[in-house]
Each structure stands twice: as structure tokens, then as C-alpha cells.
Design brief:
The complex is a heterodimer of chains A (308) and B (284). Chain A has helices at residues 2-29, 43-52, 59-71, 86-121, 126-140, 143-157, 171-201, 204-211, 216-254, 259-268, 272-300, 302-305. In chain A, α1 (2-29) packs antiparallel against α11 (272-300), α6 crosses α7 (171-201) and α9 (216-254) packs antiparallel against α11 (272-300). Chain A is 77% helix and 0% strand. Chain B is an all-alpha fold and 284 residues long. Chain B has one domain: MetI-like fold, CATH 1.10.3720. Chain B has eleven helices and no strands. In chain B, α1 (7-17) crosses α11. The longest helix of chain B is centred in the N-terminal third of the chain and has 37 residues, at 75-111. Chain B starts with 6 loop residues before the first helix and ends in a 5-residue tail after the last helix. The chains are: A mainly alpha (308), B mainly alpha (284). Chains A and B meet through α1, α5, α6, α9 and α10 of A and α5, α9, α10 and α11 of B.
Chain lengths: 308, 284
């Protein structure tokens, strides 16, 4: 197990290198730099600024420079927010994303698996049809429609919750963004769980357990739950990547100060280092989560535990 | 009565029995026809304002059936143009996706060995790349070009198809007809295009159908961030984004395009599920 972990961690390094290189190459391949402002600068000032950010060096030197900093965990200075480093901006924004994204994932997991199991137990009943129809609707209606509608109903009409903005530690401000972000994944997980539960419930060992007289509840929890959850666990990797994307929309709708906002603004303002830094952070998050998912998979399924 | 019982006849029979999938197919064809024909028949265009009818709710008296937007443009015509653009983006990007995915998967699966290891290892690496940020940056930097949106979306969503197709190719590779073709001296490119790809059509159709709605949603997402097609041209995503800003006073601006968008995505999902059951009946 420890060797497997070590190998996976080492394997993450080339992946991160690919991400960093792609981001660097793309941002440097395009015409226009971060300091091509509408108002022309004095040539001396321009030169000084370019020199300060190493933008006057040849590209390969800038690349090595960037990788060197990256290896030390330094993502460089932000071009747009003068005097602030990308690390500081991320440190400001990341807690918001972790709170919203984490809550959303947890909600989606709990609600999605419960709904899926319920629908599977009442297979082909009216309730099953209704729930699965709702689930397809949840997948089909985009986040940026659901989120404003939730704001309209729960904040502007009913005044139950604040319509947006962020107060650290305030649960009321967390509810709407997290629920909106969770809805599509709840729907997807519910569908996955239902399908997988039906497959598991049809298998011979479940029939045996039922035949020897165990009540349905015990069979579900003790025998059927773990194999049912396997596809859900493997969906968590893509789900986490999706939550990251979704958080960009959510932050726009609810005016949250997370890194998604910095990312969109950074891309519009050609803030190279900010965009590269956030992209690399996203990549690292996805890699870490995929690793966790694989480890969880090994815990749930004894068949994969002893693979090399 | 026909006595032929090929794969396609069986699949068609199974699909016909699936009412939800069949209704979805009919709905999609109807939307496609409406999107292609109705704007030609309507007296209004997607760009010209009608100054006498600014921001009107849906009315069945006048000619603006579904109302107008803040600039007096007919909402029905704009929504149908939005459907056109969204369907175009969805179908074109899915073609790009499927082409790359199928070629990548069949080559890796058929050639095997070190090539396979290298190709699939790079798919693993690409799985960890956060592509959506990359697409956002691309569209910001290179301008909001529709063609670029196709290519960008197509280029990032082929990974799943490549994996599935490779698995299928591995299963096909040892079948007798492939061996027979190899003995007859068929080279690798001809083998892939003439013998492997035709046998993968079923699975490819399923995944193409399921890719289209994701692409449409993704384009809508880009449009929502203001990175999609540029005004006065429109897509369902940008219409929804415009409508979301005014939904409190004028809910029809949000509802009309949102209903079309949801209907298209819903129908493609049901059709894809139906096709999966029809073409690949092992699961049931």
C-alpha cells in the first residue's frame, strides 16, 4: 500500500509539469501582454516593469524561472493586483471555495445515494418514475438557471436567506450556493446509485441473503450497500472537477469572493501568473482527489486491493 | 413482413418500444425543423429592433408570440436562432470529439504494446488537466470565435470515448474476422477504418448522442460567463444569461430560452439512454 501511494505521488509530478507547461505555453503564445494598457506608458517605466516581472527575458528563461519558483511553492506576483502575490490571493479565496464546494459534495453524496436507493427499492413505481424524471431534469437544467431561480424564490420573494455575498462563518450565506451547486450532482448520483443498486439487488448473493430470512433493511445495509456505492465513488473524481467549474458560475451568481472570480477576472485582464497559478491549483486538486478516490475504492472493493 | 433480423432491425424494434426515447427523438426533430424553418417565415429577424414593442410579455394577439426583449427583438425568433447555434455547436463539437476519440482508441487498442501504453498513459495525464479553465482562457485570448469554441470543446471531451473504444477494440482484436483480414494482408490503417470502426458504430452513436447535451450545456456555460457567441447573434446560453438578469420583472425572458434549453438537453439524454438500451441490450 505504501509503495502504491509513493508511486502515485511521484506519478503526479509529470502530470503537474504537463499542466504548468500547457498553461505557460498557451498564455505566452497569444498576442498582447498584461501591460499593454490602453494608456501608453513611459518607455522607461515600461522597461522597469517588464524587468521586474522578468518579462524582458527570452521565453525559455521565463519558463525555467517559473518552474523554479513553482517547485518552491511560489506562484509569483499577480500582475493585476499590484503588490499581492498569487499565493496570497489563493489563500484569500480558497477557504470560500472549500466551504461551498465541500458542503455541496457532501450534500450531493448524502441526498443522491438516499434518493437512488429509495428509487431502486421502489423500482418502477410511480415514486421511482417521479424521482428519476426529476433527476434527469436536474441534470438537464444548467446551474446558471437553477441558481438565479433559487435566489429569486428563497431570497427575493420569501426572504429566508441572503441573496448573495459572503460572511465568513455564516451558515445562512452558505446554504443557497451550496444547495445550487449540489443539485446537478445529487441528480447524477441518484441515477448512478439507482442503476447500480438494481444490478446488485439482482445478484445471486443478495437473493441468498434474502432467502435465508434476513430482513430487507439488513440485506441493504450489510450486503448491498458497499458494492452499490462503487460507481458513485468512481464518479467522485469527475464530480470534483465539475464542482470546480460550477463554483465559477456560483461565485458569479452569488457574488462570492472565491478563486473562480479571480480566475475569470485574471483571464480577462491577462494576469498570466494568476491564471497559471489557479490552473495549476485546480490540477493539483483534481490529482489529489483522484488519488483519494482510488484509495477509497481499494477500501470498498477487496478485488482491487491486491492489484499492483 | 420482413424476415431480416440484423443488428439494426433489432435495435430499431427495441427503440420503437421505448416511448420516452421515441418522443425525445420526435421532439428533437421538431425543434430542429422549427429552428431551421420558422425564422425564414417570421417577419422579424434576430437583430432588428421593433421600437413599438419593447420588452413585451408573451401575447397571442399580435405577431410577437413569445414577447420581445429589452431592444424589441422577437423572443421566439431569437430563441430559435439560439437553438440553431446551440445545436450546431453541440453536433459539430461532438463530431470532433467522436473522431478524435475513436481514432485514438482504435489505434491504441489495435496496435497495442508500447504505443498503447504511451497513448493511454497520456489520456490518464490529460484526465487530470483542468480543461475548463483552459477553454475559458482560450476563448478570452483568441476572441469569441464559434469555430474555436467547437474545436476547444471537442478537443477536451474525447477522453471518455477513447477509453471506451479502446476497450471494445481489445475485445474485437482477437475475433476471427480480424485475424482473417490480417492473414489476407490488410494493413493497419485499412484494418482500423474498414474493419474495426464499422463494428464500433453502435457504441459511437450512443456516446455521440450523450456528448451533444454536455457540449450544449458547456457552450451555454461559456455564454453565461460572456465568452460565447457575440451579440447580436445569440445562443440559448446567452439568452438565458440575459434573462437571468431581468427575471424579477420579466420572467419570460428567462423562462422561454430555459425551457428550450432544458427540453433539448432532456431529449438528448433520454434518446441516448434509449439508444444504449436498443444497441447494447446486455445491460438489461
Amino acid at each position: 500500500m505504501r509503495r502504491y501511494l509513493l508511486r502515485r505521488l511521484l506519478g503526479a509530478i509529470p502530470t503537474l509539469l504537463v499542466i504548468a507547461t500547457l498553461a505557460f505555453a498557451m498564455l505566452h503564445a497569444v498576442p498582447g501582454g498584461p501591460f499593454d494598457a490602453a494608456r501608453p506608458m513611459e518607455p522607461e517605466i515600461r522597461k522597469a516593469i517588464l524587468a521586474k516581472y522578468h518579462l524582458d527575458e527570452p521565453v525559455w528563461q521565463q519558463y525555467l524561472h517559473y518552474l523554479g519558483d513553482l517547485a518552491r511553492g511560489n506562484l509569483g506576483p499577480s500582475f493585476q493586483y499590484r503588490g499581492t502575490s498569487v499565493n496570497e490571493l489563493i489563500a484569500q479565496g480558497l477557504p470560500v471555495d472549500l466551504a461551498v464546494g465541500g458542503t455541496a459534495l457532501l450534500l450531493a453524496l448524502l441526498a443522491g445515494t438516499s434518493i437512488g436507493l429509495y428509487a431502486a427499492l421502489h423500482r418502477n413505481s410511480r415514486r421511482d418514475w417521479l424521482l428519476m424524471g426529476l433527476a434527469v431534469a436536474g441534470i438537464s437544467i444548467p446551474l446558471f438557471v437553477i441558481a438565479p431561480v433559487l435566489v429569486l424564490v428563497f431570497a427575493l420573494k420569501l426572504h429566508w436567506l441572503p441573496p448573495g455575498d459572503w460572511v465568513a462563518g455564516s451558515l445562512a450565506h452558505l446554504v443557497l450556493p451550496a444547495v445550487a451547486l449540489a443539485l446537478p450532482y445529487t441528480a447524477y448520483i441518484a441515477r448512478l446509485t439507482r442503476g447500480s443498486a438494481l444490478e446488485v439487488l439482482g445478484s445471486a448473493y443478495i437473493r441468498t441473503a434474502r432467502a435465508k430470512g434476513l430482513p430487507l433493511r439488513v440485506v441493504m445495509l450489510r450486503h448491498a450497500l458497499r458494492p452499490t456505492l462503487l460507481p458513485v465513488v468512481s464518479f467522485l473524481g469527475p464530480a470534483i472537477a465539475g464542482v470546480i467549474t460550477g463554483s465559477i458560475v456560483i461565485e458569479t451568481v452569488f457574488a462570492l469572493p472565491g478563486i473562480g472570480r479571480y480566475f475569470t477576472l485574471g483571464a480577462l485582464n491577462r494576469d498570466y501568473t494568476l491564471v497559471m497559478g489557479i490552473t495549476i491549483l485546480y490540477g493539483a486538486l483534481i490529482i489529489a482527489c483522484n488519488l483519494l478516490v482510488d484509495l477509497a475504492y481499494a477500501l470498498l472493493d477487496p478485488r482491487v486491493r491486491h492489484e499492483p | 413482413m420482413s424476415l431480416r433480423h440484423g443488428l439494426w432491425q433489432d435495435a430499431w424494434r427495441r427503440l420503437r418500444r421505448n416511448r420516452a426515447a421515441l418522443a425525445s427523438g420526435v421532439l428533437l426533430i421538431a425543434i430542429l425543423c422549427a429552428a431551421l424553418l420558422l425564422p425564414l417565415l417570421s417577419p422579424y429577424s434576430y437583430y432588428a429592433p421593433d421600437w413599438d414593442h419593447l420588452i413585451e410579455p408573451p401575447a397571442f394577439r399580435g405577431w410577437h408570440f413569445l414577447g420581445t426583449d429589452a431592444l424589441g427583438r422577437d423572443l421566439l425568433v431569437r430563441t430559435l436562432w439560439g437553438c440553431r447555434i446551440s445545436l450546431l455547436v453541440g453536433i459539430a463539437a461532438s463530431l470532433v470529439t467522436v473522431t478524435i476519440g475513436v481514432l485514438w482508441g482504435t489505434i491504441a487498442g489495435y496496435v497495442g504494446g508500447r504505443v498503447d501504453a504511451l497513448m493511454m498513459r497520456s489520456v490518464d495525464v490529460l484526465y487530470s488537466v483542468p480543461f475548463i479553465p483552459f477553454v475559458i482562457v482560450l476563448t478570452v485570448l483568441f476572441g469569441r470565435d464559434l469555430l474555436l469554441i467547437f474545436i476547444a470543446i471537442g478537443a477536451v471531451s474525447w477522453l471518455d470515448i477513447a477509453r471506451i473504444v479502446r476497450g471494445q477494440t481489445l475485445a474485437l482484436r482477437n475475433r476471427e474476422f480480424i485475424e482473417a483480414a490480417r492473414v489476407a494482408g490488410v494493413g493497419t490503417p485499412a484494418m482500423i477504418l474498414r474493419h474495426l470502426v464499422p463494428n464500433l458504430i453502435g457504441i459511437v452513436i450512443i456516446y455521440a448522442t450523450l456528448t451533444i447535451p454536455t457540449v450544449i450545456l458547456f457552450e451555454a456555460f461559456l455564454s453565461f460567463l460572456g465568452l460565447g457567441v457575440q451579440s447580436p447573434m445569440t445562443s440559448l446560453g446567452s439568452l438565458v444569461a440575459e434573462g437571468a438578469g431581468r427575471m424579477q420583472s420579466y420572467p419570460h425572458l428567462l423562462l422561454v430560452p430555459a425551457v428550450f434549453l432544458a427540453a433539448i438537453v432532456y431529449a438528448f439524454n433520454y434518446l441516448g439512454d434509449g439508444l444504449r438500451d436498443a444497441l447494447d441490450p446486455r445491460d438489461r
